[in-house]
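Quick one, probably user error.
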């Protein structure tokens, strides 16, 4: 599965997400609207305050330095509020400028804090929510090995939201305030010159639209190059063992280099255009500046309105025009970023809600039956099952060929039922149905007579223990790993469980004993040791029903004996469904089921099956031969 331009499993869900950003606000903004509103208002006030100094400067030039006007003339401020006399007005202007700078700083700070609180707290909740949802997804979802995709949603996509909620939203507010505010001031001061100054704005908007259209496909290609590179890296790191043992480092490095070069080129495609855009905008602003300078300058030097213009222009107004013209570029140049962040956030929230909308098939029943106290009778009746072809958002999922066909059997409380048969016969699959890692398509799996689909998932899974072939250990101490699932268990209980699982001895031999940290995925322990930890975990959980998926990986005879002894203790008084590869371990089972191609082809006790002289008997004789030759080898070694 690659996360490239090929269709990914998320695409199917994504298509059905409507108006993702509206939904984002609808679901996550309430409760945080305070931060959002304060952020927006502070942003608005900060930008307004930043316009005050140039306006005051212009008014002061006219009223105080050139004496062109009698008194300070300020937009929105009645003359009655201003002090009389040149010097008091000068002090007033200086004070107001200082306050404006202070206000800009304070409001920018408030805006920064609240906008970030808003964006990051939305991001946090979205991340945790999608993680929770992800945990509930059907096991079949994870069979497609889309961990990279899920990681991307939880990580990159929530990050994209942050950039949008923080930067893009606030910058677009700033854009409106600045362009709108500046235009209003300029028109107030001198509408004719304002027309000259703002003449370039439509050109800037046009230029921006052209840029966005041109850059969009390049962005798409760049993003898919990033995806390809990530997939390649992920794959290369996961396969490091294979790469080393086959000396394929050069080959792998070449592949990474190709992907990286591709990303480099795609990124340059974007950058070439981006680096053209910014100076282009500045050039247009320059045109506007020159035009204003030319017309305003002529107006002032000749003392009469040039060309079609009428009326007068003061030096102060001219200064305000020139200062504010330059202020218009920055917010406008942000437009391309805003649009990019908007597009990214839209795609990201589509993916996030796509994940959240994936239907869960294996879920708690509406009205679960109470399982307590669990006796441990397990019944399979006419069970058929096939893996989903490829999980889709729709309910009419396509199923591959059935892997389990019409299987029926029963295990009485305390009994042991063993499953044997060739690899791929469906043994693991059959037992996973009891845990509801998957749901049957036909028939039913029952525990104490209750269909497992009528039992709450936590009740079911605490009644059924599962020791799988591949024992996963979390990064943490050995004690943490034994305690996983029974988080309140005392140290004493952990120790007892380890003793029962024959793990106590090797654990206490380790330098830090139970506090020894196992590395990520438990690589510091041998396979046999990991398995005993997993067994200890199950002993501690003390389930009434036990599923044992025997490891095919070979452990040495001594370890095997140890593990077998701990398993024997574990299975003594509980219902056990065990998959076995070495028949010697199952000959005492109450019932042995021989599976082939998803069906039970033989059943009975060890003796009955030998008498029947079918597949089991053949297999037994073959393994007996192995055992003898192994014994001979051992004798020969002596
Ligand atoms: P056994 O435990 O007897 O070796 P399994 O139950 O593991 O057999 O597999 C039975 C069949 O189901 C095999 O053909 C296998 O390829 C297929 N299978 C197992 N797991 C999956 C899965 N997660 N998705 C699709 N097919 C699967």
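Nope, works fine. Designed sequence:
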């Amino acid at each position: 599965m690659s996360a490239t331009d090929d269709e990914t499993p998320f695409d199917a869900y994504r298509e059905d997400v409507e108006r993702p950003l509206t939904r984002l606000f609808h679901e996550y903004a309430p409760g945080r609207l305070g931060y959002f509103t304060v952020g927006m208002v502070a942003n608005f006030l900060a930008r307004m305050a930043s316009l005050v100094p140039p306006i005051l400067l212009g008014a002061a030039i006219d009223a105080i330095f050139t004496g062109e006007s009698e008194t300070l003339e300020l937009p929105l401020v009645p003359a009655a509020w201003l002090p009389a006399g040149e010097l008091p007005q000068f002090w007033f202007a200086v004070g107001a400028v200082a306050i404006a700078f202070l206000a800009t700083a304070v409001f920018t700070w408030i805006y920064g804090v609240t906008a970030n609180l808003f964006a990051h707290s939305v991001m946090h909740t979205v991340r945790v929510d999608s993680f929770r949802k992800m945990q509930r997804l059907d096991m079949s979802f994870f069979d497609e090995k889309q961990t990279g995709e899920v990681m991307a949603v939880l990580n990159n996509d929530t990050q994209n939201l942050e950039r949008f909620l923080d930067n893009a939203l606030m910058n677009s507010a700033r854009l409106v305030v600045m362009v709108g505010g500046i235009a209003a001031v300029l028109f107030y001061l001198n509408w004719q010159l304002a027309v000259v100054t703002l003449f370039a704005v439509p050109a800037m908007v046009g230029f921006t639209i052209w840029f966005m259209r041109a850059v969009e496909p390049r962005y798409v290609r760049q993003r898919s190059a990033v995806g390809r590179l990530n997939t390649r890296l992920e794959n290369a790191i996961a396969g490091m063992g294979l790469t080393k043992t086959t000396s394929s480092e050069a080959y792998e490095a070449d592949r990474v280099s190709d992907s990286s070069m591709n990303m480099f080129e795609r990124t340059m495609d974007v950058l070439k255009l981006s680096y053209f855009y910014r100076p282009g905008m500045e050039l247009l602003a320059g045109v506007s500046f020159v035009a204003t300078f030319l017309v305003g300058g002529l107006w002032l030097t000749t003392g009469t309105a040039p060309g079609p213009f009428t009326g007068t222009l003061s030096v102060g107004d001219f200064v305000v025009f020139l200062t504010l013209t330059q202020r218009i570029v920055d917010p406008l140049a942000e437009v391309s970023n805003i649009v990019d962040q908007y597009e990214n956030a839209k795609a990201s929230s589509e993916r996030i809600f796509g994940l959240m909308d994936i239907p869960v098939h294996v879920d708690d029943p509406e009205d679960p039956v109470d399982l307590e106290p669990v006796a441990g009778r397990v019944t399979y009746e006419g069970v058929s099952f096939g893996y989903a072809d490829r999980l889709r958002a729709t309910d009419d999922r396509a199923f591959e060929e059935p892997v389990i066909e019409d299987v029926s059997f029963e295990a009485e409380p305390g009994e042991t039922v063993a499953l044997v048969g060739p690899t791929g016969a469906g043994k693991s699959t059959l037992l996973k149905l009891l845990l509801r890692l998957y749901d049957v398509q036909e028939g039913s799996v029952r525990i104490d007579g209750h269909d497992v689909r009528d039992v709450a998932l936590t009740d079911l899974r605490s009644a059924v223990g599962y020791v799988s072939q591949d024992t996963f250990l979390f990064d943490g101490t050995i004690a943490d790993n034994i305690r996983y699932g029974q988080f309140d268990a005392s140290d004493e209980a952990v120790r007892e469980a380890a003793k029962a699982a024959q793990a106590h001895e090797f654990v206490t031999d380790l330098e830090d004993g139970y506090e020894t940290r196992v590395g990520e995925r438990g690589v510091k322990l041998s396979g046999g040791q990991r398995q005993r930890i997993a067994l200890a975990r199950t002993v501690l959980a003390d389930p009434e029903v036990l599923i044992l998926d025997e490891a095919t990986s070979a452990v040495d005879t001594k370890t095997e004996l140890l593990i077998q002894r701990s398993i024997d203790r574990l299975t003594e008084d509980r219902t056990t469904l065990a998959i076995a590869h070495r028949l010697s371990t199952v000959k005492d089972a109450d019932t042995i089921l021989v599976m082939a191609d998803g069906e039970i082809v033989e059943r009975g006790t060890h003796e009955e099956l030998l008498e029947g002289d079918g597949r089991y008997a053949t297999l037994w004789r073959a393994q007996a031969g192995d055992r003898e030759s192994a014994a001979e080898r051992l004798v020969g070694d002596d």
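Residues 386 and 401 are 6 Å apart (CA to CA).
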